[in-house]
Prior knowledge:
28% of the residues lie in helices and 20% in strands. The N and C termini lie far apart (32 Å). Strand 2, helix 2 and strand 3 form a beta-alpha-beta unit. The protein is built from 4 helices and 6 strands, in the order βαβαβαβαββ.
Amino acid sequence: MDSHLILWRHAEAGIGIKDINRDLTDKGKLDGKKIAELLAKNYTNMSLFCSNAIRTINTSNYLVNILPKIKTYYFDKLYLATSDEMINIIYQNSINKKNILCVGHNPGIHQLALSLVKKSSIDPKFEKINHKYPTAALAVIKIKDGNWENLYSKQNELIDFITPKDLKH
Length: 169
């Protein structure tokens, strides 16, 4: 049975006085909706892990509105978490989860995606992940043998990397 970790960077946010309270821009709202529709169409049996920042909550809400029964967990510690902090939160909460969708922030989410797979194994069509992880982009990582124990193994496989620009809408 396959298990997937889906890493979704929050959609574009405006500038704000207090970082945690920054809301989505109009572009961010459109991009968040596009990616949420793609996720709802292609992935089932997901648990949603989300940072407590307004921009991540509002990004994930596009998916929650489509899939209201999705199990959603908010983690204060995901706010601006490093890749090491993120992987530990994901692993500690992965028991009995088939697919996990984590909505977070850069640079942690980008670094985490790259740390879970061997760079040499990245399909050339996803090569852009090596350089950039735009807002609202998502990486889909197949966990080796469907076993969350392999999360730290670097033997997982990047099976998709999607940015809003990749989607026609």
